[in-house]
Specification:
11 helices, Beta-Lactamase, alpha+beta, 5-stranded mixed sheet, Helix Hairpins
Length: 418
């Protein structure tokens, strides 16, 4: 059938058909050359029944450049020796060189010296095909930017195109994440260590009770039976043994109390501090009466706290104010003030005061500023108070002058109570 059709065409028709094909081929070659040499602005193509379609090369080039300019990455083209031939605005901003002055700059001049070898390796790989990696760029003002760089060969052209992505925000998030992980690990280790120390303090103190009880019992028995049968030195030695055993028992009891602050605790609940204070004053009524103490207070709020522990704080501070009164008749005033998101409580007295250089030491475990002959106690009361307030996410501190009384402050976060 095909042969019959060819046989039906004349020689003249075949020659004409061949010439037409040559003309179309020449036209296609001229069009390609014109496109490469930017000699035409558009191409018109036939779309069958849809008619013709116009492709405007100038418009396409403009849209392409606009797209490049709007990208967040730094994009440019480089000559084979690494000279910047073209740059979008983002690349110019990144290295802080005006866009109109960036052409002709060497990109390697904006790579930190430590990364130049890596950059050269990536660039050479890009000349062959493509290269990529992470480097650090240094802008004109000295700012160092961690970046990902991708360099790719421009097919059939001499040079490469480069895409630079600023990794500063990503690195910042990675550093924050790493710091958070390290902090979480440190907190967990601290929590575990704190728990182990609490257990050690509790177990050690508990185990010491029994041998101490034996020392106390037998030393008291020795005192009762032989006190009048021995000389004065022996009687004094027995008194030392009894007194030391009793003091050791008090230290152990206080150490147990300190360890229980975060081990044996009640849940937080709504606590009416007016009721708490009334109960404390009832418990201390004998001491208040004997020392002729005057205690006043402002209206106290209802807070969210551990009722037993917050009562212990008030009782310890009031007891200290009565104890360290010097020659004055004790006067104590308690106040409460709501400030932003926390309550600030104060317990003010007219006692002996505290030298400013010792005001941090008094919160350390078993730290005393006076001898036991001057004032009784082991020096752990304020340490317990501080630990309780810390458990309540507050702060405890003192303001005082020697001989002019003291004011203890502590804070408790405000929590809406339904």
């Amino acid at each position: 059938m095909l042969n019959e059709q060819h046989k039906s065409k004349t020689k003249e028709e075949l020659v004409n058909e061949n010439q037409e094909l040559k003309l179309r081929l020449n036209e296609a070659e001229e069009t390609l050359n014109a496109i490469q040499n930017s000699e035409i602005d558009a191409i018109v193509t036939t779309q069958g029944s849809e008619g013709t379609r116009v492709y405007t090369l100038e418009t396409a080039d403009y849209l392409y450049r606009m797209l490049i300019q709007e990208m967040s990455e730094g994009i440019g083209t480089l000559t084979p020796d690494g000279t910047i031939f073209y740059s979008n605005a983002q690349l110019a901003t990144m290295i802080q060189v005006p866009l109109e002055k960036i052409t002709g700059q060497m990109l390697k001049d904006f790579i930190i010296p430590e990364d130049l070898e890596l950059y050269t390796s990536i660039f050479n790989a890009g000349l062959e095909n493509n290269g990529k990696g992470e480097i650090r760029i240094q802008s004109v003002d000295g700012t160092i930017i961690p970046a990902h760089i991708s360099i790719n060969n421009l097919k059939d052209l001499k040079g490469v195109y480069v895409v630079i992505t600023d990794l500063s925000e990503q690195k910042h998030h990675e550093e924050l994440k790493k710091a958070h992980e390290q902090l979480s690990q440190s907190v967990e280790e601290l929590r575990r260590s704190n728990y182990e120390l609490q257990r050690f303090a509790y177990v050690s103190s508990h185990d010491l009770q029994e041998p101490l009880r034996m020392i106390t019992s037998f030393s008291q028995l020795l005192e009762r039976r032989y006190k009048d049968r021995l000389d004065e030195d022996a009687n004094e030695f027995i008194e030392f043994i009894v007194d030391g055993a009793q003091h050791m028992k008090q230290l152990i009891d206080d150490l147990l109390a300190y360890s229980r602050v975060t081990s044996n605790v009640d849940k937080f609940e709504s606590v009416d501090l007016e009721t708490v204070l009334d109960n404390i004053l009832t418990n201390l009524s004998v001491s208040i009466e004997e020392n002729h103490v005057t205690i006043t207070h402002d209206p106290l709020p209802t807070i969210f706290a551990d009722p037993s522990q917050i009562g212990q704080v008030f009782q310890n501070l009031i007891t200290n104010a009565i104890k360290f009164n010097g020659q004055n008749t004790p006067k104590i005033h308690i106040s409460a003030q709501k400030l932003d998101n926390e309550w600030i409580f104060t317990v003010t007295d007219n006692g002996i005061g505290i030298d400013p250089k010792h005001q941090k030491q008094i919160f350390e475990v078993f730290r005393r500023l006076h001898t036991r002959e001057e004032y009784t106690g082991t020096g752990i009361g304020l340490s317990i108070c501080q630990k309780i307030i810390q458990r309540h996410l507050g702060k405890l501190w003192v303001e005082s002058e020697l001989g002019h009384g003291s004011t203890f402050y502590f804070t408790i976060p405000v929590k809406e109570i339904c």
